[in-house]
Amino acid sequence: MQREGLVEVKEIEKGVDALVSVQMLHPAVRSHTAVKPTVSAPVLEYQPPVVRELYCITAHVLELFLPLKKGTPLPANEVRRTVRDYVKSKQLDAGRGSVKIDATLAKATGIKEQALTKWDELMAGLLSHMTASTELVFADGTSRLIKTRIDPIQMQVFTRSGNKKVTLVSNLEAFGFVLPTLAQECQRAVAASCGVTRSAGASHDQLMLQGDQTHFMAKLLIEKYGLPKKYLDGADKALNKKK
């Protein structure tokens, strides 16, 4: 760099050179652009998906919901509102909480035409002829529609050789959990072996923890990650269990 005129170096004593000046007006210095350090994106805390129980329109009930198409998912309150509007428009309200079944309602509910039916029976028949579905809306805005009711997370404790207990946690991936990452967190928290496995007959990977860790898992999923209790089998029992 001394040859290019960028810096000046002098020998201050025998065998010792020192940098005595830098030419800040040198073109190479003036044209230099500092590179900004990259900042890693913050790691977002896991948020469980919003779970909505829906009913998809089938061929049996399609006429009742026109102009909507077959397969359209609807929440139960919207299904109920549509039926009430239909009953009112066709003057099928028989009073005292009863509805007179016409041909369209008979096809949609499986109830005999001309029968007088209570509202609860009418809705039960109608919903049984629709496809019970589940919509998962994740924190990043993406959503997934499953044409069935989603199974809750299950925790099971097994005793293995040497009277050692292990806890298997199933269906975590359905709620957006990344099992290897969760396994690392659990292992640090309980100071016990934890990994990803798949037991015989299981269709998806499971989390396996050494010992009875149902109390720990219930607190982690419900209290830290905000998972609603209804989506964790045995949640109350596990939370009330002594450590």
UniProtKB/TrEMBL annotation:
Residues 153-225 form the SUI1 domain. PROSITE patterns: SUI1. It comes from the Eukaryota. GO terms for molecular function: translation initiation factor activity. Pfam families: SUI1, SWIB_eIF2D. One of its GO terms (biological process) is formation of translation preinitiation complex. InterPro entries: EIF2D, eIF2D_SUI1, SUI1, SUI1_dom_sf, SWIB_eIF2D, SWIB_MDM2_dom_sf. This is SUI1 domain-containing protein. It comes from Pieris macdunnoughi.
